[in-house]
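ASSEMBLY PREDICTION REQUEST
Request ID: AP-0331
Submitted by: J.K., bench scientist
Number of chains: two
Total residues: 900
Priority: normal
Notes: Please return the full assembly, not individual chains.
Input sequences:
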Amino acid sequence: MGTATVDNRRLYGHAPENNYLKHTRGIASWMFTLDHKRIGVMYLVGVTVTFLLGGFFALVLRSELFTPNKMFLTEAQYNQAFTLHGAIMVFAFIIPAIPGSIGNFVLPVMLGAKDVAFPRLNLSSFYLWVIGTFFLLVAMIAGGLDTGWTFYTPYSIQTPTNVVAATFGAFILGFSSIFTGLNFIVTINTMRPPGMTWFKMPLFLWGMYSTSIIQVLATPVLGITLLLLIAEKLLGLGIFNPAQGGDPVLFQHFFWFYSHPAVYIMILPGMAIISEVISTHSHKKVFGYTFVALSSVAIALLSFLVWGHHMFTSGQSSISIVIFSALTFSVAIPSAVKVYNWLATMFRGEVVLTTPMCFALAFLFLFGIGGLTGLFLGTLSTDVHLHDTYFVVAHFHYVMMGSTAVAFFAGVFHWWPKMFGRMYNETMGRITCLIVFVGFNLAFLPQFVMGSRGMPRRYARYDEVFQIWHQLSTIGALVLGLGILLGIVVLVRSLFNGKRVSGNPWGASTLEWQTTSPPHFHNFEFDPYVGGLYDYKGVKYDESVEGYVPIIPPGVAAPGSAPVPQTAH
Amino acid sequence: MSLDSVLWAQTEDYTNWSNWDGSYFFPQQASDNAAAVDGTFDLIFWVSVFFFVLIVVPMVVFIVKYRRRPGYSPKPAQDHNLVLELGWSVIPTLILVLFFVKGVWGYMDMRTPPDEASEYEIQAQASQFSWKFTYPNGTVSPKLVLPINTPVRFRLQSSDVIHSFFIPAFRLKHDVVPGRFGTAWVNPTRVGTYRLYCAEFCGDGHSLMRRDVEVVDKTWEEVMDEIKWKYEEHDAWGNGQHLYILNCAGCHSVDGSTKTGPSFLDAWGTQRETYSGSVLFDENYARESILDPNAKVRTPFPRPSAMPTFQGKLTEDEINYLIEFLKDPAR
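STATUS: Completed
Returned structure:
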């Protein structure tokens, strides 16, 4: 029998000194770090900045829409505001947000590994993100951008705004995304600990793996498309420009061949977080683990087959439209399966309404609306009326903001104590969630109504009949903005006066909770014990560390102890 | 003048739509396809409400019933159940098949014009940022007026970027893509004034591509007769403005802003720089440029000029009207 030679405080407690944050000091130790945790933290800071910038443009354009006619923006300025909002949010925030920050931080620790497979590639992915975002900002400052985030030709060829800088930025951001995806695929394939087979992997890893597949396979198409657009703009190739015999709808096909799968690059990591958060805070194994895991893979594969539903009114042949409609419905099913599995996870669980759990429940509500309203758009006859109206705007904000961003918040609040070893004020956290939830619904529910009533999207001026709905939406957006700022304040304050937490304050079961908070520089000082998946009976509360510690079964070497001597039979 | 007021001035009857007269979710049903679309929408809506309740109610019940509290310890529960999981995969699948079929059915009806519709075809030409309609008798007008209960086809054409022809009251939308024709059709079933929107972002004035669509209780012959521009009823400047809106407004502003071509504001009677030297903007220069745009191209606009010749398209009278308008475009 091996006996523990290292006490639980060192293994599973709070680590005030011996952690990744304090291992080395100075700016250079961060800028040139190869530590996935530090890269994750840098991503977290970076995407917060882009999120605030994108949110600023959202509030600017929502404010302008408070009145039907000009309030303070010209049409051209309004068009720039909505374009920059969309481009920054999509390319510089929501695609990299979860994989870059939470994925980078959590994924290797969850595997019990020291780092990702290619740490240098990981750092270069972060710097590509910085450079790509920089080019988006250059476009913003030098010439602006007014094409919408979709860069549709031939308007993007005609406009005098800085399409070249913006598309080049998006091109570089694409490579950042590919590098992260490649890294995660190799890491999950090769670095799982002994005993963790594919179907003993936490669902977060299944979600990230599916995301990575899409990132690696779809993003190159966007890269080529954007390069062609730049060539079209600078050299006048005539691929997409009808004035030179090109086909503008071809651009839409290329663009959506990436950008529809990209929708799942955005939502799958959100779903991955929700699986962990709901299971942990219900203290119960995810219901129908295999279904949930495989539905991520199914979504990833089906996501490549539905891009045509963005072009139901563009004059495709009827037969291709019918096929795309059918395929679109097929991708709805795995998403619905997940929602009911998450609900069933709470059944006979032990539900604790922590801040991350509140965000996860908000996710279920908002994703329910976002998913169900997608049915109106997949159905052909109703889509013809709803296409390019505010109904679509509301639908994808429910999925992107209401689901992915809310899942991101859930993840940040869930892993924050692990990242920084401090607990935020739970009451303020729950209030944040409530304000975000109320503000979000007030901002976007009215948009469904005005959309089905016929209000087209991307309108700087509108008919008076829609004014009341626009005003509700604007007020909601401001409330939502306040909620998000409050959340940032709550988190940042905790760094200074938050309660110090142990390695596993939630009673979670996955491996990242079986090390100190913040984690050791090498993640684990001693190899962790890989117990049962989502086995909440496998952890117990330990007074000495003021947190949960794993129960090591007899006959197994505890981390840090001498190996169990093998007796000959 | 702002972009706003110039574009709004293009249609005299342009009104701001301020009284909602439709149902909660929809504008009025003014075509014979509208009821079917709304019916499908309502079906999906109520099924969605049902499934949404099926998410929210258990969620609330589970939060209350299974919350951690003193004296509560969870009973053992299954962590998977094949029958249940197949159930909530297969039943929604069947419902989705129903939606799909209804959607395809409705779509095919919307895309298949009845035989009568080929009798009357209106050519709808979209450009930044206006609409121009060519009626079967050759009349060109910025107004869209349709007789009731008469199926009509639209041939959609764009002269610059992608636009989209969207009339909510007809539940009709089709993109207007440059370099190819789009087709759409409608059978208007209700007299009234409705809205035409551009639904695909097309540039600065995108949100100003809103126009009225009138459905009237008249025959095609009456409509076409009324809509025909009668030169004798307007003064020369008014006729010139009409011709400007139809032919020039896409590229030449009258508010001083530069579009594809130079603005007409305060241009008359001044010296203008061209690649062939300085030229006085007078009757002869105007006439020459209309008939032969490449004779003297203004700097710094690209040469050869992007402007088509109007030789054979405008009569001498019409050119004279235009000249009257150009003398004082901001009147």
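REVIEWER COMMENTS: The first strand of chain A starts at residue 422 and ends at 423.
SIGN-OFF: pending second reviewer
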